[in-house]
Amino acid sequence: MRLILHKLLLAFMHLCFCFSSSIHVDAAHDSLNPGDTFNSSSHQLYSKSRKYFLQFYSVGALDSIFTYLAIQSAYDNTIIWEGNREQSVDWSDAVLSLNFSGVLKIEYPSMKQPIILYSPPQPINNTVATLLDTGNFVLQHLHSNGTNTLLWQSFDYPTHTLIPTMKLGVNHKTGHRWLLFSQLTNVRATPGAFSLEWEPREQELVIRRRGKVCWKSGKLRNNRFENIPEEAQGVLKYSIVSNGDEDTFSFTSTNESHTRWWSLSDSGRLSYNYNERYVARADLCYGYNNTDGGCQRWQDIPKCRIPGDVFTKKNLRNNYQNLTFDNNKNISYSDCEAACWSDCYCNGFAQNFDDGSGCRFYHWNSSKDYIVDGTVSGQDIFLLENKGNIIPHHHGTKRWIWISPVIATTLLILCASILCLAIKKRKQVIQEKKRKEMSLIEHFGNDLNKKNGLKVLDYTLVVAATNEFSSENKLGQGGFGPVYKGTLPTGEEVAIKRLARSSAQGIVEFKNELTLICELQHMNLVQLLGCCIHEEEKILIYEYMPNKSLDFYLFDCTRSKLLDWNKRFSIIQGIAQGLLYLHKYSRLKVIHRDLKASNILLDENMNPKISDFGMARMFTQQDSISNTNRVVGTYGYMSPEYAMEGVFSTKSDVYSLGVLLLEIVSGRKNTSFYDDDHPLNLVGHVWELWKDDKYFELVDPSLNEVFDHEEVQRCIHIGLLCVEHYANDRPTMSDIISILTSKGPIVSLPQKPAFYIQRYNYNENLSSLELCTGSTVEITSSTVEMTTST
Ligand SMILES: *[C@@H]1O[C@H](CO)[C@@H](O)[C@H](O)[C@H]1NC(C)=O
Ligand SMILES: *[C@@H]1O[C@H](CO)[C@@H](O)[C@H](O)[C@H]1NC(C)=O
Ligand SMILES: *[C@@H]1O[C@H](CO)[C@@H](O)[C@H](O)[C@H]1NC(C)=O
Ligand SMILES: *[C@@H]1O[C@H](CO)[C@@H](O)[C@H](O)[C@H]1NC(C)=O
Ligand SMILES: *[C@@H]1O[C@H](CO)[C@@H](O)[C@H](O)[C@H]1NC(C)=O
Ligand SMILES: *[C@@H]1O[C@H](CO)[C@@H](O)[C@H](O)[C@H]1NC(C)=O
Ligand SMILES: *[C@@H]1O[C@H](CO)[C@@H](O)[C@H](O)[C@H]1NC(C)=O
Ligand SMILES: *[C@@H]1O[C@H](CO)[C@@H](O)[C@H](O)[C@H]1NC(C)=O
Ligand SMILES: *[C@@H]1O[C@H](CO)[C@@H](O)[C@H](O)[C@H]1NC(C)=O
C-alpha cells in the first residue's frame, strides 16, 4: 500500500513539474560553467549552503505577467536582485547562459538582442558564474595558476534591496555608483521613482524621489542613524569606507541567525525583512516644515495644501465623474501622487493599469456624498485628507524620556475622545440601520436602487454592454446560467449573469432574493451591483473580478507558481472569513451549498471573494438544518449527508471548505486523484499520509518547499476535521477561524474522513499533460442537480 502511494506521489510530482523530465542544472550546483544554460525548467541554482537561490520568477496576473531572473532568499522568498529589471522575459523560453567567450546573457527566441549581463573586452575561455552564500552572483576568471579574478558581480548592480555586505556609494576610480532604485510598481521591476543613496560628505543615507531629496537618515554617530527606528538597526553593524578608491556604506548583522535586508518599495517605504516594518517612510514625506522622521522640507508646496494634508488609501466604489487619465506606462503611484499634490483641483488618484502603472486623477469638489465607502468591491483610491501631524517620531532615548509623559497624556485624551466618537457613531449606525429597515418594509419593490445601491438596469443597456451576449464576452458557465463580461457606458466593468429561462422562480421571489443578497456585504463576498428584469429574462450584475477564479491558478502547473504559500494562506483565511459571515454574522444565515475552487474569485490583489449564490439558501438565524429533495452541488465537495439524504446545514459548507483547503495546500483537485487499484480521492490520500505522519508530502510541489510548516500542518489538520463523516463532529466556522488564527495546539484529532474511497470511475486514459492542466475531470467540476427520494 505504502509503496503504491509513494509511487503515486512520485508520479504526481513528476507530472506537476510538467517539463521536469530532464533536469539540466543539478539543484545541488551553485555554478554555471562555459556552455551551461539555465532556464525555468532547470528550477533553481542554489548557493552552497542553500541560503539564496537563482531562478526565473514570474509575478503578476493574467495579461500582466512579468518574468525576471531573480535571486531570492531561501528563508522567505524575498527577491533581492533581478537581472533583467528593464525588460521582462518569457518564462517558458528564457535562457541564461555562459558561453565559451565568457559572455553571461539572457535570451529567448522572440527577443532580437540578448540581455547581456557581462561581456569581457576580449573573449575569455575559463570562467565560472557562481551564486555565493552572501547572495552575490559572481563571474570569475579562472587562471591556470589556481587563482581567480572577479569579472562581474550582481552586487555591483543593486536593484531595490540592500543585503549585508552589499555596498552603496561611489567608486572613484571607475566612477561606478551603487544605489538602490525602487521598482516601478509591485509587479514591474523597472526602476521606479525612489532611490536610496549614500552621501559620503554628510555621512548619511538619502532617499530621493525622481532626484529630489525627500528623506535623510541624519549623520551616522556611534553606529546609529538618528532618523531610523532603533528596532530597525538593532543588530546592524555599519561600515563606512572612505579613501581615494571609494566612498561606500554597507552593513552586516551581528547575529547570524538574524540577517537583515532593506528593501525600497514603489511607494518609497524602506522596509526591513518583513513588509510592515520600516527603516524609513519616504511615502509620508510631503515637504512640510516638520522634519520629524527624516522628512525634508521642500520649497514648492502649492498654496492650497496645508500641513497635515495627506493621501489616505480608501476602498471606494469607482466613480467615473470628473476623472482624468494619464496613460503613461512609465509612471506609477508616487508620480501620480506628486502630480495630484501640485494640482489644487485634484483630490484623489488611483492606478490606471493592471500592472500598477499610469494614473487616474479625481477632481471632486468638497461634497463626497456620492462615493460609497465600504469594505466591499471598490478600487483602492488615494484620497486627500487632513490628518494633522502623521509623521512618526523617531528620536534618541533622551528626548523620549522628556516627551513620553506628554505623549501619554495626549494619547489618553485622544483615546477618550475616540471612544466617545465611536459610541456616538455606533448609535448613529444603529439608528441608521433601523431607519433603513423601516423604509425597506415601506418601499419594498418600489425602488431597489435607493436602499441597496442596487442599480436596476435597462435591458437594452445590458444587451449593449455584453455585445448582445456575444461569445467573446462570455466568462463562463455559472450554476444557473452563463456569465458575461460587460462594460457599462460609464466604463465600469461588470460581470453579467443571465439566469436560465427555465428557472422556475417568480419575479417576487427573485426580487426577494435580490434584496437578501444585496444585504450580504463582506470583503470576501462578490458584490452584487444590480439587476435587470425583462419579460422572462432575469439578469444579475456583479462586480467584475479581473483575476478569474482560484481553480484557474491552483490546478495549472505554471500559474500555480504565482500562488506562494503566504498568498494561499491568506486566501484560506479570506474564504473562511467570508463563510463565517454567511453562517453567522449576516442578518440571515446563508448556506452556500456550492463552495468550490471555481466559485472563489480573485480580485486584483488576489483577495478571495466567494461567488455564485445561485444555490444558496437562507434561513433565519434560529433555523439551521433543512431537507430538500433537490440536491444541487458539485461532486467531490458535497458532504455525505447532503449527497445521499439531501440534508444540508452549515456543516455541509464546512465539509466543502475542508475539501477546498486540502486542494489549496496540495494544488490538486479532490477528484483528480485516482488510481485503478486503489480508488482513493485526495481526501483519502491525505488521511493516509496523515496517519503515517507524512502529510508534508502533500504540499504542492509548485511551492518549491517554501512554506510555513506550522501553518501548513494547521491547514491540513483543519481540512481533515472539516471532512469528517458526521456533521456534528465537524467544527463550526467560528471554531475554524479561531484554530486558523491561534498559535496553540489543536485539541481535537480528526477521524477517518467521509468519502474516503473514490466513488466514481473514469474510463478516460489520462495523459500526463491533461492531468496537469486539470482539464480531465471536467464532468466532476461542474454543478450537478439530481433528485433523491426522501
Ligand atoms: C530548458 O532546459 C531543458 C533542460 O536542459 C531543455 O530540455 C529545454 O530545451 C530548455 N528550454 C529552452 C527553451 O531552452
Ligand atoms: C558568446 O555570446 C556573444 C554575445 O551573444 C557572441 O557574440 C559570441 O560569439 C558568443 N561566443 C561563443 C563562443 O559562442
Ligand atoms: C576553450 O575551452 C574549450 C573547452 O574546454 C577548448 O576546447 C578550447 O581549446 C579552449 N580554447 C582556448 C583558446 O583556450
Ligand atoms: C596567476 O595568473 C594571473 C594571470 O595569468 C596573474 O594575473 C596572477 O598574478 C597570477 N597569480 C599568482 C599568485 O601567480
Ligand atoms: C540571535 O537571534 C536569535 C533569533 O532572534 C536569538 O534567539 C538569539 O538569542 C540571538 N543571538 C544573539 C547572540 O543575540
Ligand atoms: C516653513 O519654513 C519656512 C522657512 O523657515 C518659512 O518661510 C515658512 O513660513 C514656514 N511655513 C510654515 C507653514 O510654517
Ligand atoms: C517609457 O519608457 C520607454 C523606455 O525608457 C520609452 O521608450 C518610452 O518612450 C516611454 N514612454 C513614455 C510614454 O514616456
Ligand atoms: C465636476 O466638475 C464640474 C466643473 O468642473 C463641477 O461642476 C461638478 O460639480 C463636478 N462633479 C463632481 C461630482 O464633483
Ligand atoms: C469644483 O471644482 C471645479 C474644478 O474641478 C472648480 O472649478 C469649481 O470652482 C469647484 N466648485 C466648488 C463649489 O468648489
Automatic annotation (TrEMBL):
Every Protein kinase domain range: 469-747
Any Pfam family matching the protein: B_lectin
SMART domains tied to this protein: B_lectin (SM00108), S_TKc (SM00220)
InterPro entries reported for this sequence: Bulb-type_lectin_dom (IPR001480), Bulb-type_lectin_dom_sf (IPR036426), Kinase-like_dom_sf (IPR011009), Prot_kinase_dom (IPR000719), Ser-Thr/Tyr_kinase_cat_dom (IPR001245), Ser/Thr_kinase_AS (IPR008271), SRK-like_kinase (IPR024171)
Topological type in the membrane: Single-pass type I membrane protein
EC number in record: 2.7.11.1
Primary enzyme class: transferase
Catalytic activity: L-seryl-[protein] + ATP = O-phospho-L-seryl-[protein] + ADP + H(+); L-threonyl-[protein] + ATP = O-phospho-L-threonyl-[protein] + ADP + H(+)
Record-level Gene Ontology MF annotations: ATP binding; protein serine/threonine kinase activity
Start and end residues of each Bulb-type lectin domain: 29-152
Signal peptide: 1-20
Gene3D superfamilies for this protein: Bulb-type lectin domain, Phosphorylase Kinase, domain 1, Transferase(Phosphotransferase) domain 1
Cellular localization per UniProt: Cell membrane
Annotated family: Belongs to the protein kinase superfamily. Ser/Thr protein kinase family.
PANTHER family linked: CYSTEINE-RICH RLK (RECEPTOR-LIKE KINASE) PROTEIN (PTHR27002:SF776), RECEPTOR-LIKE SERINE/THREONINE-PROTEIN KINASE SD1-8 (PTHR27002)
Protein name listed in UniProt: Receptor-like serine/threonine-protein kinase
